[in-house]
Every structure is written in C-alpha cells, then in structure tokens.
Design a protein that fits this description.
With 227 residues, this protein is mainly α. 67% of the residues lie in helices and 0% in strands.
C-alpha cells in the first residue's frame, strides 16, 4: 500500500515537473523567435538578457515569456512539493525546499518583469542565490544522506550549475570590473548605452539558466515512476 501511494505521488511529481520544464522552454523558444528590436534585428544570446524578452514596451510578445516563466515555474514548484512527500533522506528536505524556492523566484521574474524594476531585480538575484544553494544541498544529500537521486549526469550538472550560477553573482564582488562601476549583473539588465557585442552579464545569465534547467530536468527524470 505504501509503495503504491509513493508511486502515485512520484507520478504526480514527475508529470508536474515535466510540464513545468515544457512550459519554460516553450515560452522561451517562442519569445526568442518573435523578438525584434527597434532596428529590426532579432535576439542574440550573447547580447540580450531574459529580462529584455519580458520587457513590456520593448518586446512585442513579452507576455509569452512572462507567462511561461510564471506558470512553468509554478508547475515545477509543485514537483518539489510532491517530492517532499516521498523523501528518502532528511537531507532531501532542505534540497527540495531550496529547489522550490528557486522555481518560486523564477516565477516571480515572470510575474514582475523588468518594467517593475526593483521587484524584478530582487527576484533575479534570489533565483541565482537559491539555485547555487540548491546545488550545494544536492551534494550534501548525496554525500551525507546517500539518497536515491544519484546519477553521474545529474551530479556533473549539479557542479556546473553551482559554478555557473555563482559566476553570475561573484564577479562584481571580486572587483573584476566586468560592468561599469563593478555593479552587480542583475542591476545591468537594461543597460543599452555602449553595450558591447559580447556582453558578460547576458552570457553569465544564460549559462546559469541553461545549466539550472538542465540539472533540474535531470533531477526530475531521476524521480520518474517505475512501471
């Protein structure tokens, strides 16, 4: 009976997780394809940010990415909540809680676009903070808790996620002067004057987002219900 209940919860968690990832990617792909600057140029991952895709007044189809971020992340958040019910280690609780907070922050990025500048930058900041901490808790979950969510691919992706999401936060603190005045990357999302063709805040942001989504997907696949 317990095994059957756990399998049902695992099925729900997996389905909500996959639905969330699908919503995130669908919103991203559609918004990138429909993005057009005032000069007619399209989207460039080396030069444009996630915030610009969701900027009402700058992007004609901002509602697509903002809706995808909000509803996709809420669905992924449900994955985390259901996963807490079938925890196999005490260390899985802080891991799934922090992972859920990361998706909650990502949902807030869509709910509060760059037009609401202060709330948007706070959400962006905590998305990268919680994402980095989630990967640390995943490592503790494997090393101390000896949980079942282990695979070499997921572990490697967790390391990449930690490095890439931390890289978005740390350079301004280290005084590397990659932005004017050494400002934090999340405060640079709408800088347009003298923006170079290869812009570090955009690159670090997209690498962090891509690694987090890939790692989260791998974690979800690890909870795929057994037939």
């Amino acid at each position: 009976m317990v095994a059957r209940t756990n399998n049902k919860v695992s099925t729900l968690a997996f389905r909500f997780g996959m639905l969330g990832i699908f919503g995130l990617l669908l919103g991203l792909i559609l918004s990138v394809l429909t993005f057009e600057q005032y000069d007619g140029k399209g989207f460039n991952f080396l030069n444009h940010t996630l915030s610009e895709l969701g900027n009402y007044g700058h992007s004609y189809f901002a509602v697509i990415i903002n809706g995808g971020l909000f509803f996709g992340s809420l669905s992924a958040l449900l994955f985390c909540l259901f996963s807490l019910q079938i925890a196999d280690s005490p260390w899985s609780y802080p891991f799934f809680t922090c992972l859920g907070l990361t998706f909650f922050s990502l949902a807030a990025i869509g709910l509060f676009p760059i037009n609401v500048y202060h709330l948007h930058t706070v959400a962006l900041k905590y998305f990268f903070i919680f994402g980095s901490v989630s990967s640390i808790f995943y490592g503790l979950y494997l090393l101390v808790g000896r949980g079942r969510l282990f695979s070499r691919v997921t572990s490697v992706l967790a390391i990449i996620t930690f490095v890439s999401m931390s890289a978005f936060l740390l350079p301004p603190l280290l005084g590397l002067e990659l932005t004017e005045g050494g400002r934090a990357f999340y405060h640079e999302m709408l800088v347009e004057i003298h923006r170079p063709a290869i812009w570090w805040p955009a690159i670090f942001e997209w690498v962090g987002i891509a690694s987090f989504v890939s790692w989260s997907t791998s974690v979800m696949l690890s909870l795929r219900p057994k037939v």
